[in-house]
Amino acid sequence: MNLRTIALGIVGVLICVVLIFLGFFIYSTSSSGSSPPPSEFSVLSSDVAGSEAYIVYNYWGSGNLTLLSSDLEPQKTVVVLSRSDSISDLSASKIYDQLKSLESYGYVISISNSSVLPRDSIVIVPTGAMPQNLLLQFQTRPKNVSLVYFGDPNLLISSGGTVRKNWFDSLNSSLKPQISVFSEDSFTNQNFSLPLFLLYQNWSLRNSKTLTLLSNKKDTSSLEFLGGRYLRVIYSFTDGKKGIYDSKQLRVVSPSISFDPSSIYPNEKTSLSFALNKSVGIPRISVSKEGSEIFTEALSPVTEENVVVKRLDFPDAGSYVVRVFDSSGVLYSGILHVNNLEVRHIGQNGIAYKFLILRDGVPLESSEVFVSLDNSTSPKKFYVSGGVLTVDAQLPKGKTSFNFQIGRQSVSVEVENNSEPLLDFYLKYGLPVGLIVLLVYLAARLSKSPSYRLRFVDSITYVRKEQPISSSEAITAFNNARKDMKLDSFPITPSEFSFGLKRHVTGGADVTDGNVEALLKDLVQKGLLQTYRNYYQLKTEGSVRQNVLLRLVREKLIENGISFQERLGVFVTPNYDLSFGNIKSSKKVLVVIEDKRDIHSAYSGLSSKETALLNLKIQNGLLSFVPIDELDDYL
Are the CB atoms for 29 and 201 separated by under 8 Å? Predict the structure, then answer.
């Protein structure tokens, strides 16, 4: 073989290598450059059931979904007036530039110098004083028109010039909700966003709720209508896709069905109760999920008023629309939400296995959970705190199923243990370690009987020990736990108290959860501690309910990255104040309550004038009652 042949062979091999490399590079580049399909959102139907408005929709992607209840027909046409008789320095072009961001939601923004009031639109009037001819048109034909006025409510531009007149107070009360009045300085105020004000149409807002979209599915979402007539749905995805769906006018046409319990998990039963008068034909009950009927049943004919109680179970998580009807139409309706329970293994520390418990994608604040391993029929009770559940278990090497039960709902999570079991370790390395363990155990058993015995696991030998602790020592550990975690005098959870015991009493060893709960319960019975929502504080530290809610609000603000200042129990943020009853503020106020039943107590003791003022703030979006468990939806 000559040198020429060898050279040609080498060149050929090099060319093949280069071609293979180029092919791989092109393939990897095209693969890495591929992007997920664009997000999609479509509303299939909207309606009212009981006191709630709801939508059935399909979506793909991740983002946020906001539902709004409005008593005026929502608009997406905005006209900014530019008038030569304006006495304001606020220019129409400056407002137009700020509102351009709304076009991504389907709004149509324009500037007009016409003296004729446009119909079916939101009209921005930045004139400093209200034009008289515009006001007269609004009073005579205000259909589907809302005014947003920047100026003085006591100034009027007439044919003879600007005059001082309190034109707003002289308006018919039915028209006032359609005019929003702001000072000229409000436009540049960092706490005010005109695009958001128009997007939410705050002047007619009755209620709102924001949800997280994290999947690809058909779903149903609902909102307490609170006297609204229209439902606006705003969607915004992480890939930039945005849009709005506005419903036709919806009417509450039937009383609500009562569900007991009102919150269940799959395969749990709930009781539906309603009263039927003499029916027209055979009454029926119907259950629909995501727009499709999944159950229907005929009820017995009613010849006189009769209370009907029906027990039903629901196999899957989601929102169900329940209706009772006869030949005359719908008699009762309501929406029942069945919670989705999810458990994730998030880590372990020695024999302590940690799990995140989620209900509808949100960490479960507190609950009892029964846990068993594999096929065991003897579950043990544990407690969730802040969505995290810690289970102490000595697992064999390999895979083990943790079985969790909350109510009647069961979830299994498989966990793999790659370390050797303790018994195998002893057998492999001899009995000396076992003898040492036995001596430690016997020494602990022979110790003097204490006021309490803390059971904990030694991190080296994995042997359960007991240690005496008195009531005063327990309270000292309680205060030290708060001090270590910089919680001041806030109530703490059992797991946080366990942290204090671990650091100051057991020398770093974990205390078993059941032992901590028993100790806290005993301290409560002795009058040393108070408890609420599985949080604990000293008996002398005031209302435990109020203090727990204060802590929950504080932590939710921090978790959502919202800056705030705390002033006498009121959390002051840049956009709104959060309080527990104080509604005196120039900004929007979120009044935090335990649940919606507390709304009625907020009205007790108010005069008719104070009640009207409270209702006006709610109607104008300046005040909302927010149950603590729904606060994340508002932040």
Answer: no
Give the number of C-alpha atoms closer than 13 A to the C-alpha of residue 359, restricted to the C-beta side: 20
Short-list 519, 513, 508, CA closest to 473: 519
The length of the chain, given as a count of residues: 635
Among residues 211, 210, 535, which one has the least CA distance to residue 365?
535
Residue 245's beta-bridge partner residues?
233
pLDDT higher at 332 or 189: 332
How do strand 161-164 and strand 179-182 relate by DSSP bridges? unpaired
Give the DSSP letter string of 443-475: HHHTSPP-SEEEEEE-TTT--EEEEEE-HHHHH
In the sheet with 452-457, reading across from the earlier edge strand, the strands are 464-469, 452-457, 510-511
pTM: 0.60
Residue matched to tokens 């073989």: 1
User: What whole-number distance in Å separates Cα of residue 72 and Cα of residue 177?
Assistant: 9
Q: How does strand 121-131 pair with strand 145-158?
A: parallel
Tokens of 542: 């005031």
State the DSSP code for 301.
P
Q: In what order do the strands lie in the sheet with 269-276?
A: 258-260, 269-276, 306-313
Distance in angstroms (rounded) separating the CA atoms of residues 301 and 296: 15
Q: Which amino acid is it at 125? A: V
The model's pLDDT over 269-279, given as tens digits with 9 standing for 90+, comes to 899 888 887 77
- Residue 16's pLDDT is 56
Q: Where does residue 222 rank: exposed (0-12), middle (13-18), buried (19+ CB within 10 A)?
A: buried
Phi, then psi, of 277 in degrees rounded to 5: -85, -170
Helix boundaries (H) for 224-286: none
Per residue in 110-121, pLDDT (tens digit) is 999 998 999 899
| Contacts for 323 with CB less than 8 Å, ≥ 6 apart | 49, 254, 285, 286, 288, 330, 332, 333
d(CA 102, CA 221): 24
Whether omega before 363 lies within 30 degrees of 0, making that bond cis, reads no
What are 520-563's pLDDT values in tens digits?
988 999 999 999 888 999 988 888 888 888 888 888 887 777 88
Beta strand pairing call for 306-313 and 366-373 = unpaired
Predicted confidence band of residue 429 (pLDDT cuts 50, 70, 90) = very low
For residues 508 and 194, give the distance between their C-alpha atoms in angstroms, rounded to a whole number: 55
The Cα–Cα gap between 430 and 405 comes to 39
The CA distance from 149 to 166, in Å, is 14
Mean pLDDT of the chain: 82
What letters, b where the CB count within 10 A reaches 16 and e where it falls short, cover 298-327? ebeebeeebebeeebebeebbbbbbbbbbe
**How far apart, in whole angstroms, are the C-alpha atoms of residue 426 and residue 98?**
72
The pair of three-digit structure tokens given for residue 616, joined into one six-digit string:
């006006």
Using DSSP's 3-state secondary structure scheme, residue 111 falls into strand
Query: Alpha-carbon distance 346 to 355, whole Å?
Result: 5
